């Protein structure tokens, strides 16, 4: 073996080690924040605090799962936070006011029916995003930014900016039990966590084994090639935005259920947490790459980071700064990983040669 080949082999090995560390960055970050806050935040590892953090991380995770599929296609969804607020208001309104029919009769729904209606609303808003992007060729950033304002404005108009409190329902109307989604437990774990497990496993299976799931990665990797290979790109994009809207609707339902109140400002800036969690979890902003598992870990990193900073008494202004830095660092590392991957591949080819 020549000296040049030996040097290439050594560089390839060191590059492979660095590339592996980059791929594991989300898990490293998770362990780092847990250790840090265990030392500096009082009662961080208490059972009550762990359950509370899991609830908050779950909210980020739902949004991040939907955002992951969107980003993999090369898009972005800025409207999810507003969808959370609007769907929460709709859930509260259905419980308190029901729906007035033109015949002078008011229909009230049980809790499961409320959940289905809210989910449908989220899917429909996602469909609007998808239509704007696929049919009218509006850039995803602009389309979802517009939907962000429309959904937030609709939430404010729904109650004239007021909170809908005391969502306990009435026994004679059969709409009690709304608190179960946000405060109920199964085998000691919050219901929202079990809901996340179901959605996450379903999304991971879909992405890996269902043709439409694989098409999502193909569209993000090379949209033109995907179109030429017969993939219905518009259908794929429609699906990811509808699924993102569905995930946001679930969060709106859970938050309102946990608080037993609906407020139109709920979900403000949650889209930033979703993007940060997805990118931190290894989803490439240029599209074509991402995993549901990595996104879940990224969501827990963001959730633990937020709660830990609050426990340490860090100003909310500094929290925004830190989250912004996390997004920037995650994107920088992602770009470095792509370059490193290409370099390692070349070095391995040189080693084989």
UniProtKB/TrEMBL annotation:
Species of provenance: Metarhizobium album
This protein's name: Sugar ABC transporter permease
Keyword tags: Cell inner membrane, Cell membrane, Membrane, Transmembrane, Transmembrane helix, Transport
Membrane topology listed for this record: Multi-pass membrane protein
The organism's taxonomic lineage, starting at the top: Bacteria, Pseudomonadati, Pseudomonadota, Alphaproteobacteria, Hyphomicrobiales
Cellular compartments per GO CC: plasma membrane
Chain segments annotated as transmembrane: 27-52, 64-97, 103-126, 138-158, 178-207, 238-255, 316-333
GO molecular function: transmembrane transporter activity
Any Pfam family matching the protein: BPD_transp_2
Subcellular location: Cell membrane
């Amino acid at each position: 073996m020549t000296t040049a080949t030996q040097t290439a082999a050594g560089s390839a090995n060191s590059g492979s080690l660095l590339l592996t560390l980059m791929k594991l960055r989300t898990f490293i970050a998770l362990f780092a924040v847990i250790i840090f806050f265990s030392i500096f935040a009082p009662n961080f590892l208490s059972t009550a605090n762990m359950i509370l953090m899991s609830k908050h991380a779950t909210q980020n995770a739902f949004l991040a799962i939907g955002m992951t599929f969107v980003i993999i296609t090369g898009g972005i969804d800025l409207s999810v936070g507003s969808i959370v607020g609007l769907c929460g208001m709709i859930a509260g309104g259905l419980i308190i006011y029901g729906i007035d029919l033109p015949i002078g009769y008011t229909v009230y729904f049980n809790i499961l029916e409320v959940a289905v209606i809210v989910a449908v609303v989220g899917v429909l808003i996602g469909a609007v995003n998808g239509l704007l992007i696929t049919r009218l060729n509006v850039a995803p950033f602009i389309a979802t930014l517009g939907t962000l304002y429309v959904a937030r404005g609709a939430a404010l108009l729904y109650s004239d900016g007021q909170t809908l409190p005391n969502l306990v329902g009435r026994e004679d109307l059969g709409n009690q039990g709304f608190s179960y989604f946000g405060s109920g437990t199964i085998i000691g774990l919050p219901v929202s966590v079990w809901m996340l497990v179901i959605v996450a496993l379903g999304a991971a299976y879909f992405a890996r084994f269902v043709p439409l799931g694989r098409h999502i990665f193909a569209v993000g990797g090379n949209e033109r090639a995907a179109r030429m290979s017969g993939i219905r790109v518009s259908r794929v994009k429609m699906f990811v935005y509808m699924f993102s809207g569905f995930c946001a609707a679930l969060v709106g339902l859970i938050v309102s259920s946990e608080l037993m109140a609906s407020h139109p400002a709920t979900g403000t800036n949650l889209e930033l947490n979703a993007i940060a969690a997805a990118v931190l979890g290894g989803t490439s902003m240029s599209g074509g790459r991402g995993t549901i598992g990595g996104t879940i870990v990224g969501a827990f990193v963001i959730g633990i980071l937020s709660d830990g900073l609050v426990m340490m008494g860090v100003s909310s202004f500094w929290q925004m700064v830190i989250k912004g830095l996390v997004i920037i660092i995650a994107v920088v590392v992602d770009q470095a990983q792509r370059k490193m991957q290409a370099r390692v591949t070349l070095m391995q080819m040189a080693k084989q040669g």
